[in-house]
Amino acid sequence: MYKISLITGDGIGPELSESVVSVLNTIHDRCDLKFEIQKLLAGDIALKQHGKALPDPTLAAIKNSDVCMKAPVGESAADVIVVLRRLLNLYANIRPAKSYPGMNSLKNDIDMVIVRENTEDLYTGQEFELNGAAVAFRIITEKASEKIAKYAFETAKIRNGKKRVTCVHKSNVMRKTDGLFSRVCASVAKSYPEIKYDEMYVDACAMNLIRRPESFDVIVTTNLFGDILSDESSEVVGGLGMAPAANIGDNFALFEPVHGAAFDIAGKGIANPSSFILSAKMMLEWLGKTHNDRKCFEVAQKLESAVYGVVNKGIKTQDIGGTKTTLDFTKEIISLL
Ligand code: ATP
Question: How far is the centre of ligand 1, averaged over its atoms, from the C-alpha of 117 (Å)?
Fold first, then answer.
């Protein structure tokens, strides 16, 4: 039995959560894999109801669970996810982008993953105003850079990919901070002679993600660049509505869609739940790895096949060119499980 804490979120968050709960309940009923799901409040709704975006009982329940699933939260995102990443030391943010049949992908053979440092850079929130200026501290440490670089090389090693790590930075301008990051990555690369290593400035990377996305394997980068480039890579393979993410620490992990609360479509029942369902697939893989549980890997594979099986039949939500509602799309996935 795996205890899953679930932040239901804001905007389209509750709709996506409903979808993921019905998928996990189906797995619970039909496969030899059991879950106990605890729904939790955080974000704008928690701020309104409890005066705190990340209430203490929510945090306590997350710490008491085996793993956390988090639907997108709204305006208070920085007080929820950025805080959780730091508090739980979820240092690696993993954002895969792969082309699948039936998706409107720029190329057919894209298979890459962005490994984004998740705890520092401009996201430490150390900003202040002084004499008509606004100042933000950009913090990049050797320790965190080394940890994320090793994670990226280990990922390249086990992936069935091109065995290549590309370090993305802007050290020609941010000589100290990105200078340190690229230096540490290059140094870690020496311990992985079987993996090809190269570096790219972030502006060139943004261009190459459009021009030749199939050439990438693993991208390792700092927090803000990873945030931006992963939205881009999601669109390159068909859209944010299909994009999952994992926040990984040494002993805990949190899974969430790449996108935000999408208030423009909230409450209409048209959001694409795939981003959150594929996040659940990543969660199953992580549970499989950390608990040495082969069943989790099998079910993760089934879940991914079900999502893309539905899409490949032309059954799609509006964002990817179809007409299905969140509920109907979820039912189709469940029918293939
Ligand atoms: P954030 O900065 O919090 O990531 P954002 O301003 O980038 O948020 P998102 O909420 O990520 O905006 O969404 C961008 C657009 O993508 C939305 O306007 C929405 O129409 C679309 N979108 C995002 N997620 C989905 C989804 N799951 N299904 C359908 N459309 C989506």
Answer: 22
Model confidence, pTM: 0.93
Residue 100 annotated among the catalytic residues of the structure? no
pLDDT of residue 280: 98
Task: Give burial (CB, 10 Å; 0-12/13-18/19+) of 172.
Answer: exposed
User: Which atom of ligand 1 is the closest one to the Cα of 77?
Assistant: 3
Q: How far is CA 197 from CA 143, 188, 307, in A?
A: 20, 10, 33
135-169 tens-digit pLDDT: 999 999 999 999 999 999 999 999 999 999 999 99
Report which ligand 1 atom has the smallest distance to the Cα of 259.
11
Taking residues 95-105, what's their average pLDDT?
Answer: 90
- Kindly give, in sequence order, each residue whose CB lies less than 8 Å from that of residue 314, ignoring residues fewer than 6 positions away: 102, 322
